[in-house]
Write a structure and sequence with these properties.
With 110 residues, the chain is mostly helical. Helix content is 76%, strand content 0%. It is elongated. Belongs to the FliE family.
Length: 110
Amino acid sequence: MAIQNISAIENMLSQMRAVAQAASAGPVRTPNMVPDSGGFAAELARSLGRVAEMQNSSAAQTRAFQAGDADVSLNNVMIDMQKAGIAFQATVQVRNRLVAAYQEIASMAV
């Protein structure tokens, strides 16, 4: 059961990476590409950093639009806000699954 949860967590993490990369219009990584060094903890930290960056960028665009900046359109503000919201929701789901997996492992008999 715990291995299934780990697989589900890895699946959610790969989906979160795909959403973040699609949102930033960067090149999409395929699962067979060699990951950067650092392992799971480093990838999780990078993912959290990207989500925070998306939220900060969205907030900055919102403030610029509210200030009347002519270079910022309402469409772009709304799209960036939705991208940041979806990325945050995916992050919360990953956290929930990590907590559930931890609780399941912690309750196992040794």
